[in-house]
Amino acid sequence: MYLIPQPKNIEFGEPDSHFTLSYESYVVLEPSCGEKLTAQAKLAVEALKEELGFAPALTRGTGRPGDVILSQSEAMAPQSYRLTVDEKNVCITGGEAGVWYGCQTLLQMAAQCGAVLPAITIEDEPDIPNRGFYHDITRGRVPKMSFLKKMADKMAYYKMNQLQLYIEHTFLFRDFSEIWRDDTPLTAAEILELDRYCAERGIELVPSLSCFGHLYKVLSSQGYSYLCELEDSEKMPFSLRGRMHHHTINVTDPESLEFIKGKIAEFMPLFTSKQFNICADETFDLGKGKSREAAREKGVDRIYIDFVKALCEFLVENGRRPMFWGDVICGFPEMIKELPEETVCLNWGYAKYQREEETKWLADAGAVQYSCPGACGWNQFVYLIENSYENIKRMCTYAVKYHSIGLLNTDWGDFLHVNHPEFGIVGMIYGAAFSWNTQIPEFEQINRQISLLEFRDREEKFVGIIASAANQSAFGWETAIRFRELGVAEFAEDHKAYIAQQLDLLDNAEEKNRNLEEIKGAVYESIARMDSRTKGLVKPYLTAMDAIRLFNELGRVIASRAYGKNYDSLPDAWKLAEELENWLYHYKEVYRSVSRESELSRIQEIIVWYADYLRGKENLGC
């Protein structure tokens, strides 16, 4: 039997000792359980019905033999629990959050054992108190509410307790219609609904709003471009690279601070959380335009920290705990002391073998920090599962070593969030498992566990199969975007250098495509082993694998035409164009199953551009 996260202490009873959860059983809330646990017990009963086909009755009072008994104990740590199964009862005792986590353990047991549960005693609590997931809903995709709620359900199942959604412009601000008018933003009512939904499941929905850099839609608008660090930002040609690289706010204009405060003031009352993430990362243009003189006089680090400090103090004055990304301040960590002492530094690092130096520097400077690894899906059709495992494992280890108070596992949407966001569940589970219990299983072991518990693959192969797919990419989405944007003069040389580094990957593209066909066959075979609730992910995965194959072929054509590479054979370009267009039809269906329209049109535009390129259509300027 697998349990994710792995509990700290497990003792099994006698092999023939078990408890049968009967249709006549009750889930009993003892008087110690408050209103929140009452609501959560109802959710647990509904989940048990999905696993067993019947639901135990729910009541309050004193349990009897045959019941599941829930008891809240003030003597236990808030997130700890004790679960016992014997021949008479299932008993879950813990702090308020702990009882809820014990219910998730019971649900995982029922998923594998049905109604006949083995005798067991589990004592458990997390290594890291705050265990979160961070999802980009700005750069390419705005999820449907049904997807966001499903995400919250998954997080609860694996004992996570924080969720953040990355927003630049994809919220329907009342006074800033110019920045969201051509997107499909979340509304205030939807945020309120999601906040309530998360809270019921023990998850804190923490507001996250880009407040410094990464303000493309804001600072390229007619109404607010004058606040941009660079002149004439509204006249800059659009490119996916450019919108991520530029559009930092001018900190020397007093109106900038008031503008950002106004956005925060409208956004933060929608959340019950008393925390707020201002982001403040990747301020690439700071000191290079309108603030050049101030940067020369005071230093870029000074004008950076002064603006961050002003925003943090504004939040503290409004009863909120500030959070911000730590990439910039890692260059001058001693300045962390100037921020309000409760400020949380979100220390991110996404390399497969991420080093620990930044975590140490911030810890030595006295920072209160979260460690922030990545699910490693951005710019990929299939997530880099092995990379995410190694990255998250290391960042969780550093979190414990340097006393980080939280882990925030990230899933970004660089270059239009082309990947299917449900694929992020594997990386999400790694973060949940490794932050709860930093005794981390081996890669193959945890993948078998996830295959069975999450994907309901009885042969425990599914995650291993999909993990091998990303390794077959020879011409990835980012390479395709960079080739498409070679006409943007500012980044042309950088794009050329990047593409040059990737071209050798195409030498064995045909072999990789043959591997993909075998992997697809294994996915098709897995359908017979999977639960009906998880088969819906099969088509998205097969579509993504087809994308890898088609882009590998596209890359070979480009390498031949544009870079003089020679191959024994090349695909028929017109046929490949048709395949791309047919693939796009299915991709859009998959995309719309979980996402609003958002920037789907941009993805379509890129695919159509490449289909025209393959047919040799002239004048394909960027």
Automatic annotation (TrEMBL):
Tree of life domain: Bacteria
GO terms for MF: beta-N-acetylhexosaminidase activity
InterPro entries hit by this protein: Beta_hexosaminidase_sua/sub, GH, Glyco_hydro_20_cat, Hex-like_dom2, HEX_bac_N
Domain Beta-hexosaminidase bacterial type N-terminal residue range list: 2-124
GO CC entries: membrane
Active-site positions on this chain: 282 (proton donor)
Glycoside hydrolase family 20 catalytic domain location: 131-358
Keywords: Coiled coil, Glycosidase, Hydrolase
Species assigned in the record: Eisenbergiella porci
EC code: 3.2.1.52
Pfam families in UniProt: Glyco_hydro_20 (PF00728), Glyco_hydro_20b (PF02838)
Annotated signal peptide: none
Protein family according to the UniProt entry: Belongs to the glycosyl hydrolase 20 family.
Reaction(s) catalysed by this chain's protein: Hydrolysis of terminal non-reducing N-acetyl-D-hexosamine residues in N-acetyl-beta-D-hexosaminides
Gene Ontology BP term (one): carbohydrate metabolic process
This protein's record includes keyword Cell inner membrane: no
Coiled coil: 492-526
Keyword Coiled coil: yes
Protein name listed in UniProt: beta-N-acetylhexosaminidase
Classification via Gene3D superfamilies: Chitobiase/beta-hexosaminidase domain 2-like, Glycosidases
